[in-house]
Design brief:
The protein is an all-alpha fold. Helix 1 crosses helix 2. It is rod-shaped and about 115 Å long.
């Protein structure tokens, strides 16, 4: 009977030790997981900031190119008007007549 009690007690201690070991292992895994999640979050923030910076730089470059093209088109239009003033006036008058005719047709349909 004493041997049975000792065996039962030893089994109980072994189970308690296993439970303590499992609890420690779970706590360690939880700490590692928390650390990994934190690292992933920090890396994600860095990636997003880097992508935003690259997008800003690309947008600035495109805006600069668009602005340069608009200036060039304006300069070319001014040069054509200076070189051919009568032709420019005739084109403007024709465009105005087309727009006026379109507006009159739209008003009549309404």
């Amino acid at each position: 009977m004493i041997a049975k009690a000792r065996t039962s007690r030893n089994n109980s201690l072994a189970h308690a030790h296993e439970m303590d070991s499992l609890r420690a292992e779970i706590a360690e895994l939880k700490e590692g997981l928390t650390s990994n999640v934190h690292d992933l979050g920090a890396n994600g923030v860095r990636v997003v900031r880097s992508a935003a910076s690259a997008a800003r730089a690309a947008a600035e470059h495109l805006a600069e190119r668009g602005s340069d093209r608009a200036r060039l088109a304006t300069k070319q239009a001014q040069d054509i008007i200076v070189e051919r003033p009568f032709t420019s006036v005739a084109i403007a008058a024709g465009a105005g007549a087309v727009l006026a005719a379109t507006m009159i047709l739209m008003w009549r349909r309404a």
